Amino acid sequence: MTRKIRIVLADDHPIVLNGLRNLVRAEKDFELVGEASSGLTALKIVREKQPDVVVLDLSMPELNGIALSRRLAAEMPELHLLVLTLHEDRAYLNQALEAGVQGYVLKRSAAENLVQAIRAVMVGGLYIDPAIVGRVFAGKRKSAKLATDQKGSPALTDREGEVLKLAALGFTNKEIALRLDIGVKSVETYKARGLEKLGLKTRAELVRYASGQGWLNF
Questions:
Q1: 103 and 189 belong to one structural domain
Q2: Rounded distance, CA 8 to CA 50, Å?
Q3: Could you tell me if residue 136 is inside a domain?
Q4: By CB neighbour count within 10 A (0-12 exposed, 13-18 middle, 19+ buried), where does 46 fall?
Q5: Average pLDDT, 10 consecutive residues per value, the chain (218 residues)
Q6: Which residue segment(s) compose the domain that 32 sits in?
Q7: What is the C-alpha to C-alpha distance for residues 79 and 72, in angstroms, rounded to an integer?
Q8: Which of 131, 153, 186 is the endpoint of a domain?
């Protein structure tokens, strides 16, 4: 039997917490092992339950989501942290990423994106709400073409770079195709070529590479 993904939820709003609970319980391979309405309670529960994923609000009493994320990331490096928030500002996103968060989901889109975000971070990916990525990506539309680096990695084409960057940010092939207005098969081709050029095989390796290249800095 496949091991279930063990999840702890932390949010001080009862209605939000109830909605999150329903989303988690609807997935057969998810297991809700704890709930908290404050940062300190969440810290205690996570230490006791040792879950795979913690979904936490950024604005919790006693210990906010950023401070809690820093402590958990330091204590439990293997733990996957995902924040749920109202904040769409880049400053909050940057703070969360610096604190060790791997998933950033807006509350207004949790029903559509939370499950996908949990699955993405569980396989070593980074997930950022498409509403934020779309705005940032449009506002910072630079060429994704990379010059040959010091290790002699071959340069990516503009399209290969765009596809790999979006893949590293957590987009599926279908979502990338829609965003770039190309076919899904083309996305698969560009991704395969780019990964081969860079000598990467897994999504986790791609995320690490993207981080090192500054693709994930907003």
A1: no
A2: 9
A3: no
A4: buried
A5: 88 91 93 95 96 93 91 92 88 86 90 90 84 60 41 71 84 86 90 88 77 66
A6: 5-131
A7: 8
A8: 131
